């Protein structure tokens, strides 16, 4: 099978001036590019690494209004997110589903306190509510979650929110962008901004696979680079002061036996005053997250020992048989692009709202926010881009636009209506006992712009996050299939396996 990239590069050369060029292929950039393409703009998105390589593949997997923001009194943010939750459930039903959450009650006061807060959460969702919040007794709570700590259990509040697969949603947005005539390239970092008469008129970007630099012209350039937004702003004006105060959050992934429930667990207050979740996800359970301010930005942030300890210790307070270090199948860390607000110290209190503005030179920056609100952020960004670029105004159609492959049938896979096409490319599992199949690898290379073993194992499939050791075992076969698809030689295969194996050490709690 032919490598799809040369054809994409030809499309890049053919277009003289793009209406909109988006830097960054996470939730925000992909959502913005898709929204613009739906409005008939000629759109190019450039991602420096892989789509969703950054924060957008490292979320807690919740499509939510954010119960804790309600506790902080941020009703506006919660209401907006709940509206977007409803839309996302409609537009990508194969990737978003309703999930029960149990908030266990161990103190007398906690029932009325949390019960009323969560009923307000329900009310704010209005007609988009996913189900009624209810107070349940200890017997019912243990029926739903048999490993919940029994001693002192007075019952639980059960409410409903959404769960999703973040990287698959990013890939779905990528496909939707292509469906609307847009173009996106990964492994294509933007190195410089080009200016004409003081206005940004394009970028210089580099194809990481060939090393070739390209000067690309565009009417409007959007900086959607998440925690790296300040670095791109500095390409515009080297003297600008940073806007972001990144904070790290980690997750531990353990076997389902520790939380054999269809519902998630919501722990309303950890020792450091945070909310923590146990979320059933693709047959395993995700425990997290933390909130640790960081000074140094990295594409591969690493969990700190104290973050791991905090999660294990918190879980042990709520589970009959709590997981130990040796039970952790994978650990992954992500960086929140939190927007600084003057004088605030703790990152738990820094705004989760997004920030959108254009600079004197016309560079638009969009950062902050949440996965859940990506569509709303994208719509606002394109509205601003139309103004900045003097482009004809068209309203956004994305509020009720179904995304690529959208399929509502119960049990639809993350590929939605594309599943049959994936199956046709090979149904045999790559490893006994693991769900990853040959067809997924071939499909990832042909249709989803996967370029490396990591792209397949971390984001087109989620094996690295679900079981780091198993992903290392699958790497040689993935490399072989990718080499066949992309026309690469044995040396490339070898290099791919060794670089993936090195990267996977970061996902093992006690690397060998
Ligand atoms: C631990 C954690 C848990 C979270 N949980 C949830 C949750 O459950 N629900 C929810 O709604 N939200 C959640 N969030 C928030 C959500 O994940 C983020 O708001 C969202 O993913 C940010 O997306 P982004 O596109 O702005 O940034 P990113 O995903 O980081 O994307 C930015 C991209 O820009 C690229 N880039 C950088 N520089 C350049 C350049 N020069 N040229 C080209 N490309 C470049 C990067 O490679 C990167 O891919 C969570 C965040 C964290 C950290």
By DSSP, the count of extended strands is 18
By CATH, the topology of the largest domain is FAD/NAD(P)-binding domain
* Broad structural category: alpha+beta
Q: Note the gap between the termini.
A: 37 Å
Q: Any descriptors?
A:
FAD/NAD(P)-binding domain; D-Amino Acid Oxidase, Chain A, domain 2; 3 domains; alpha+beta; 512 residues; 18 strands; eight-stranded mixed sheet; ten-stranded mixed sheet
Topology:
Elements: H1 5-14, E1 17-23, H2 27-38, E2 43-46, E3 62-63, H3 67-71, H4 75-91, E4 96-105, H5 110-125, E5 134-136, H6 138-144, E6 155-164, H7 166-179, E7 183-185, E8 190-196, E9 199-206, E10 213-223, H8 229-236, E11 247-255, E12 264-267, E13 276-281, E14 284-288, E15 292-293, H9 305-316, E16 330-336, E17 354-358, E18 364-368, H10 374-388, H11 419-424, H12 438-447, H13 453-460, H14 463-466, H15 468-486, H16 490-504
Parallel strand pairs: 1-2, 1-10, 2-7, 4-12, 10-18
Antiparallel strand pairs: 3-6, 4-6, 5-6, 8-9, 9-10, 11-14, 11-15, 11-16, 12-13, 13-14, 17-18
Helix pairs in contact: 2-7, 2-10, 12-15, 13-15, 15-16
Flavin-adenine dinucleotide (FAD) binds next to helix 2 and strand 16.
């Amino acid at each position: 099978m032919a490598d799809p990239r040369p054809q994409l590069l030809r499309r890049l050369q053919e277009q003289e001036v793009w209406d909109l060029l988006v830097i960054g292929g996470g939730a925000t950039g992909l959502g913005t590019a898709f929204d613009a393409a739906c409005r008939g703009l000629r759109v190019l998105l450039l991602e420096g690494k892989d789509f969703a390589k950054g924060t957008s593949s490292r979320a807690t997997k919740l499509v939510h209004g954010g119960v804790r923001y309600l506790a902080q009194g941020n009703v506006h943010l919660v209401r907006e997110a709940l509206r977007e939750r409803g839309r996302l459930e409609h537009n990508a039903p194969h990737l978003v589903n309703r999930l029960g959450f149990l908030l266990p009650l161990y103190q007398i006061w906690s029932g009325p306190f949390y019960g009323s807060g969560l009923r307000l959460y329900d009310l704010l969702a209005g007609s988009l509510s996913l189900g009624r919040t209810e107070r349940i007794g200890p017997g019912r709570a243990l029926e739903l979650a048999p490993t919940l700590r029994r001693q002192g259990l007075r019952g639980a509040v059960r409410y409903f929110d959404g769960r999703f697969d973040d990287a698959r949603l990013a890939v779905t947005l990528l496909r939707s962008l292509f469906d609307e005539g847009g173009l996106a390239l990964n492994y294509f970092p933007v190195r410089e901004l080009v200016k004409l008469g003081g206005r940004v008129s394009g970028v210089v970007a580099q194809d990481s696979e060939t090393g070739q630099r390209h000067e690309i012209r565009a009417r409007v350039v959007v900086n959607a680079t998440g925690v790296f937004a300040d670095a791109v702003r500095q390409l515009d004006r080297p003297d600008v002061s940073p806007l972001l105060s990144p904070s790290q959050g980690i997750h531990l992934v353990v076997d389902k036996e520790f939380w054999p429930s269809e519902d998630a667990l919501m722990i309303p207050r950890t020792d450091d005053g945070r909310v923590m979740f146990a979320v059933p996800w693709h047959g395993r359970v995700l425990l997290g997250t933390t909130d640790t301010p960081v000074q140094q930005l990295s594409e591969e942030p690493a969990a700190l020992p104290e973050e791991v300890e905090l999660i294990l210790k918190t879980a042990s307070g709520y589970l009959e048989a709590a997981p130990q270090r040796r039970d952790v199948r994978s650990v992954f860390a992500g960086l929140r692009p939190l927007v600084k607000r003057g004088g605030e110290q703790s990152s738990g209190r820094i705004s989760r709202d997004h920030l959108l503005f254009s600079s004197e030179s016309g560079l638009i920056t969009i950062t902050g926010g949440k996965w859940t609100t990506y569509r709303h952020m994208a719509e606002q960004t394109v509205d601003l881009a139309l103004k900045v670029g003097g482009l004809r105004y068209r309203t956004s159609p994305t509020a009720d636009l179904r995304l690529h492959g959208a399929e509502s049938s119960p049990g639809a896979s993350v590929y939605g209506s594309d599943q049959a096409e994936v199956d046709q490319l090979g149904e045999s599992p790559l490893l006994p006992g693991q769900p990853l199949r040959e067809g997924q690898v071939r499909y990832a290379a042909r249709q989803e712009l996967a370029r490396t073993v990591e792209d397949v194992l971390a984001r087109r499939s989620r094996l690295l996050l679900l079981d780091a050791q198993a992903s290392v075992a699958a790497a040689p076969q993935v490399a072989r299939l990718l080499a066949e698809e992309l026309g690469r030689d044995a040396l490339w295969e070898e290099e791919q396996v060794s670089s993936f194996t090195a990267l996977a050490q970061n996902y093992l709690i006690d690397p060998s």
